[in-house]
Amino acid sequence: MAACIFCKIIKGEIPAFKVFESSKTLAFLDIGPLSKGHALVIPKFHGAKLTDIPDDHLSEILPVVKKLVHATGATDYNILQNNGRIAHQVVDHVHFHMIPKPNEQEGLGVGWPTKPADMDELKKYFEEIKSRM
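Now predict its structure.
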């Protein structure tokens, strides 16, 4: 996509600190990091949401994220992938963040407001999803 910042990085039109590149995948350091080692791993295939990317273009993503974890020496970290504005996606090109969490102040801060599930409703939803898989 002509206006996509990540596509421009892939094409070399915008500089980036590329730490890994293959024919399908690119990993580079985030220029607005939450902590040292914060990096993005992206498929070179353009798609806004995870469901827009063909499976064969996703096959290297998690192995590359794992290599990043080892390369940065992170022992505590978050892997984050957002889909859609309401889910906090800012760039409309699928990307995975690897965010080291070296201490309580640096890295990703996450709230997780859990609530008890109605087990009957959960079972019904489980059957619904399972039938579609």
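The mean pLDDT is 96.
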